[in-house]
């Protein structure tokens, strides 16, 4: 297998992510879309994954778009039980935020939520106000050696890991040695495990540009070398496992143990808000209760907690299986009509490779005018190289809307590039 060139090799003068460099690469990308197309549009939510585009007229007069950007893969984000539970919790506590440190006093519902999530996912779960805050508080602790008996590990990042993980590399480098390897490069990771007494690997369970982590091989490295694994499964939660425990959790033993931590968002497939950590030991739980985001940022608000508790009930009911089956059918339908590199996998993310940013934006603009909201996305994690259209499929999408979207993609790519899809 040809070795993937890492970001550091492509830009040898830049050891880690630099904010100025990041803006120089990404700001033009967002600026072009925001000025000439539809990125950052304001909209109102409706049902069945339709949104009302922003504008100055009455809401009902604004154009309706079918949303293929949402990560609510099971369609739970506007589930009536979840919405009702959020309202009830906010009204019952007569409060939105609670202006108290959670190290002093917490909402009683928060303890109920952490207990419910722990039971569902067979782990010690701590809830945060966002998935990113969970990551921000965790990676420095991992690098400090606090979780590994005082010995600082070599922290290895997957090149395609989410930016909420990657942007912490300069901070981690103040604590310990940092490496970045090519995406899912198990051979290189094993080499680092052989050469170093202690290695921690930071990666995603499911990746934003499609694909997943090689969990079987990672587990073998844990058994063979004692690899410590930190996985962000924000995009895998709810759509894998009998209780929606996610891609990462469903691929690991009954109890996580002391060498695996899984972070996840409650705001995507779970249909609520906030984030969480799944931990395997009481010592880890006590440590993360002292993390900066847990101790010094606000806890999830009552509405978010109420929504998450309602989602827990749905996850423990027959409705979860029904929604998963519908999602699988919608993914199969898309794959039968349009070929992508992700074709045949069970993930709801599909990337339609187009080529240049200008062509991708023009294609997405054409889809927008047809009534479909998609996103223009780089096909590599560092934003360099080919660009495509990212489509998120959900259980709420109607069969006819998926069929129309696929037909529209084929039509607009041909109009934009002058070539039939797939482009050669």
Report on the architecture of this protein.
The chain has helices spanning 7-10, 19-36, 80-93, 108-121, 131-144, 163-166, 169-173, 186-195, 215-225, 247-250, 282-288, 292-296, 302-315, 318-337, 357-370, 399-417; strands at 43-45, 50-53, 64-67, 124-128, 154-158, 178-181, 199-204, 228-232, 260-265, 275-279, 349-355, 372-373, 375-378, 387-392. It has 424 residues and is α/β, with parallel strands linked by helices. A hairpin with a 4-residue loop joins strand 1 (43-45) and strand 2.
How is this fold's topology laid out?
Layout: H1 7-10, H2 19-36, E1 43-45, E2 50-53, E3 64-67, H3 80-93, H4 108-121, E4 124-128, H5 131-144, E5 154-158, H6 163-166, H7 169-173, E6 178-181, H8 186-195, E7 199-204, H9 215-225, E8 228-232, H10 247-250, E9 260-265, E10 275-279, H11 282-288, H12 292-296, H13 302-315, H14 318-337, E11 349-355, H15 357-370, E12 372-373, E13 375-378, E14 387-392, H16 399-417
Parallel strand pairs: 3-12, 5-6, 5-7, 7-8, 8-9
Antiparallel strand pairs: 1-2, 2-3, 4-10, 9-10, 11-14, 13-14
């Amino acid at each position: 297998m040809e070795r993937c060139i890492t970001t550091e090799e492509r830009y040898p003068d830049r050891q880690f992510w630099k904010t100025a460099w990041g803006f120089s690469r990404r700001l033009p990308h967002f600026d072009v879309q925001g000025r000439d197309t539809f990125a950052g549009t304001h909209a109102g939510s409706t049902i069945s994954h339709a949104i009302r585009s922003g504008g100055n007229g009455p809401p009902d007069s604004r154009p309706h778009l079918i949303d293929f950007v949402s990560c609510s893969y099971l369609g739970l984000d506007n589930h009536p039980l979840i919405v009702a539970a959020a309202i009830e919790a906010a009204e019952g506590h007569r409060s939105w935020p609670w202006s108290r440190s959670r190290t002093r006093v917490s909402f009683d519902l928060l303890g109920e939520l952490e207990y419910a999530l722990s039971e569902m996912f067979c782990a010690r779960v701590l809830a945060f106000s966002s998935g990113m805050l969970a990551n921000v508080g965790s990676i420095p602790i991992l690098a400090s050696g606090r979780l590994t008996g005082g010995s600082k590990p070599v922290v290895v990042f997957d090149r395609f890991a989410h930016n909420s993980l990657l942007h912490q590399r300069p901070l981690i480098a103040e604590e310990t040695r940092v490496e970045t390897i090519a995406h899912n490069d198990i051979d290189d990771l094993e080499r680092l495990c052989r050469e170093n007494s202690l290695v921690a690997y930071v990666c995603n369970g499911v990746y934003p540009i499609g694909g997943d982590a090689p969990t079987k091989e990672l587990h073998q490295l844990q058994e063979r070398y004692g690899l410590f694994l930190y996985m962000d499964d924000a995009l895998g939660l709810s759509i894998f496992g009998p209780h929606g425990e996610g891609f990462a959790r469903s691929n690991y033993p009954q109890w996580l143990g002391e060498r695996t931590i899984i972070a996840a968002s409650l705001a995507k497939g779970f249909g609520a808000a906030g984030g969480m950590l799944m931990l395997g030991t009481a010592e880890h739980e006590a440590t993360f209760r002292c993390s900066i985001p847990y101790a010094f940022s606000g806890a999830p608000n009552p509405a978010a907690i109420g929504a998450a508790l309602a989602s827990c009930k749905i996850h423990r009911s027959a409705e979860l299986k029904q929604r998963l089956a519908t999602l699988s059918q919608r993914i199969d339908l898309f794959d039968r009509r349009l070929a992508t590199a992700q074709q045949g996998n069970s993930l709801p993310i599909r990337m339609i490779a187009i080529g240049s940013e200008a062509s991708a934006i023009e294609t997405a603009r054409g889809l927008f005018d047809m009534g479909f909201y998609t996103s223009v996305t780089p096909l590599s994690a560092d934003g360099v190289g080919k660009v495509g259209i990212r489509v998120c499929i959900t259980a709420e999408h109607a069969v006819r809307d998926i069929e129309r979207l696929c037909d529209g993609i084929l039509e607009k790519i041909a109009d934009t590039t002058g070539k039939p899809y797939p482009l050669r």
